[in-house]
Amino acid sequence: MTQEHYIIRGGIPGRERLRILSRVFRPTTRALLERAGIQPGMTVLDFACGGGDVTADLAEMVGPTGRAIGSDRDGVEIAMAREECNARGIANIEFRQTDLLTGEADASYDLIYARFILTHLPDPAACLTEIYRVLRPGGVLVVEDIDMAPQFCVPESPAFDRSVSLYIESARRRGCDANIGRRVPHLLSEAGFTALNVSIFQPAALEGELKLIQPITFENIAQAALAEGLSTEAENESILNELYRLAHDPNTLIALPRIVQVFGTRPAA
To answer: What is the CATH number of the domain that holds 12?
Structure first.
């Protein structure tokens, strides 16, 4: 994955967005990992781990006899993740700055977790082929990814709808799919994973941090929309102001993208 394909800003601003996202999704992600069969003693990978929030949860779930590795191409976020986990005294965790899975040995992991990464890849099938390679036979891949189009706001807001369309089109212009969630089960099946388990949910709220995800996400993709010639700085600023107003209005219901959760197994040899 190269920088020109990724539409969301990384680094320190991206880390702050990921903190909120991780707090909002932590309960559903942990429940998904439990359903997928994570166990103490496993060696697990948090692929495209960002700031390492889920990596830390994985380290806790596999316990002191297990090992959690977080990998990401963003060196700033990897450095922050390493520093934060060191400060917390998490011993069974490691962070690596790497793009995709180049250099990883075959059959290295018992479980791999990948959240909101396939949507940013121009060739998600190639990524899944690499994940299949580094999973041990009988190992499990756990994926969460987005289906952006079903997002909504009530009362309706043209600015909200415009922010969604700008996200989808910016991703499309860069060869990526903002609605990939609905395709994930098929992609895993095509990659050779079996015993697929699928669940879908759509987070929504009238109040709280969940409502901040939309304006913060738009703030981090605005430059991509501008670079693709889809919007102007003035339009971006107007949309952003309205999104923050909606986020703080307790009478406005915000529904985030539909989240498709899938886990499947690399067949045992």
So the answer is: 3.40.50.150
